[in-house]
Amino acid sequence: MAYTTINKHTAHFNTKLYAGNNGSQSITGVGFQADMTWIKKRDGAADSSLMDSVRGVRKSLTTNNAEAEYTETAGLSSWDADGFSFDGAGFDHVNTSNNFVSWNWKAGTTGSGSTTGGGTSKTYNYSVNTTAGFSIVTYTGNGNSGHTVPHHLGTTPNLIIAKETGAADYWRVYNPNLTTNYNLYLNPNENNNLEPEDYEFETKFKVSWKLTDKVRLYTLGNKSRLKETDFYKAKIGIEVSL
Known about the structure:
- The protein is mostly beta strands.
- The chain has two domains: 12-105, no CATH class; 109-220.
- Helix content is 0%, strand content 40%.
- β12 and β13 form a beta hairpin.
- It is globular and about 50 Å long.
C-alpha cells in the first residue's frame, strides 16, 4: 500500500483535555477545525458523546449504549478554527466540577451523491480527509441487500463503525480480518460476539443491513499510517500485548 506523508499528526487528529465551567465555553488548543469530536468525563461515570459536522451541531450519539441520536440544546454549538464551543450550562460535558477528554478528527472535504447497488438509490452526504484516511458518511438505508455506499477514502478501509441514528440499535464494527460477513458490537458488554452481516470492504461499502432509517458511517483506512488497526486472537489465561 502507498502511504501518504504526514509531517505532523496533530494536524489531523488531536486529544484535548479541559475542565468544565458550567456555562458557555470555548475550548482551544486542538490545532485545527475538527469534523468529529468525541467527549468523555475523566473523573466520574457518565455517558460519552460523539458529534460530527455532517450531522451538525448539538446532535449527539452515545457510544456506550444503543440509544438513538438526540439533540443537546446547550451542547456543542460550533467547531472553531482551533477547537469547539458550547452554548452553556445544561450539557453534561461543561459541568464545572468535572474534567473531560476530547478526541478530535479532521475530515473537511465535503460532498454528496447517490448510493448504488441493490434497491432504490438514496442520497448520502460525506466529509473526508484522504491524506489521513478518515471519512464520515451519512445515508438512508433502502431495506435491500447490496446497498452500496461510497466512503471516498480512495483506499479499502480497515475499520468501519456504523450506527443507526433514528432508533435504538447497537453500534456495529467491521474489520476485514474478521470472519467473512461477521461484525463486532461496540457498545454492549458482550461486544466480543459476532453476528453475520453481508458486507464487503471495497472502494465502496456494500452492506445488507436492511434498514430504511438514517445510518452514520465512520471509516478509517491505513493510508497514512496515522491510524492503523490490528487484530489478534486470545485464549483465556494467555496475556496478549499489542
